[in-house]
Amino acid sequence: xxxxxxxxxxxxxxxxxxxxxxxxxxxxxxxxxxxxxxxxxxxxxxxxxxxxxxxxxxxxxxxxxxxxxxxxxxxxxxxxxxxxxxxxxxxxxxxxxxxxxxxxxxxxxxxxxxxxxxxxxxxxxxxxxxxxxxxxxxxxxxxxxxxxxxxxxxxxxxxxxxxxxxxxxxxxxxxxxxxxxxxxxxxxxxxxxxxxxxxxxxxxxxxxxxxxxxxxxxxxxxxxxxxxxxxxxxxxxxxxxxxxxxxxxxxxxxxxxxxxxxxxxxxxxx
Length: 270
Ligand code: IPD
Ligand code: CA
Prior knowledge:
Blueprint: H1 4-30, E1 38-42, E2 45-48, H2 49-66, E3 69-72, E4 76-78, E5 91-99, H3 101-106, E6 112-119, E7 122-130, E8 135-140, E9 145-147, E10 150-151, E11 164-167, H4 175-187, E12 191-193, H5 198-206, E13 212-218, H6 220-232, E14 236-237, H7 245-248, E15 250-255, H8 260-267
Parallel strand pairs: 3-5, 11-12, 11-13
Antiparallel strand pairs: 1-2, 3-4, 5-6, 6-7, 7-8, 8-9, 9-10, 13-15, 14-15
Helix pairs in contact: 1-2, 5-6
The protein binds D-MYO-inositol-1-phosphate and calcium ion.
């Protein structure tokens, strides 16, 4: 495990890198069209030159600077984990340069830079920068969570009768359980949304603005930071890292604790 000074340095670097990455993404979005030219990694799974440039920046400022390993959405494994392709590093950055790329390309504001850090396999630092809102969500294991420096807490069932639940979806999973879950939630008088960024989805649970985030398959780079945010804001998260979740993804349920039993029963995610 890293000592406190090592974590302090990494958290400071992650905050600075998130802001710099956000500024680069915003500048590229406002600049020449070429930055937004889309490569389709899969149907409805987009990547732009902005995604790649921002990830290169994060890798330089974080993994290269500290000599740590890195797992990123666009370039995969690198640093100390790169040569063997194994996640052998004790210290691992898990980054998504632009989460919500579809929104980014179309001009909707819900996209974010997401930076998570695992210390000996434990999610320890989480920074999510919602660039268009200039909201910086920060969490450190054991030290709480903040947005723009102000402490945040999950909703604590303020809206117990009418919870607001975000339901993420991608083509990596069948539409059937997703549609069935919507039907069940409507049947239980719950409100639902799909806003298009899982990183922000978990940050909004941490801030108590939504009560839960559910997705039947999500990748580590989308939520590594969000896991720390939700836990440090007093929330509950499913065991995302179980099995090969880090490299192949898993389901995620992140919620205010009072909703956990009900949503685990409805979704089958524990
Ligand atoms: C996607 C977003 C989306 C979620 C998908 C992710 P991307 O990431 O987080 O909200 O539902 O599962 O793949 O493609 O915008 O980086
Ligand atoms: Ca993503």
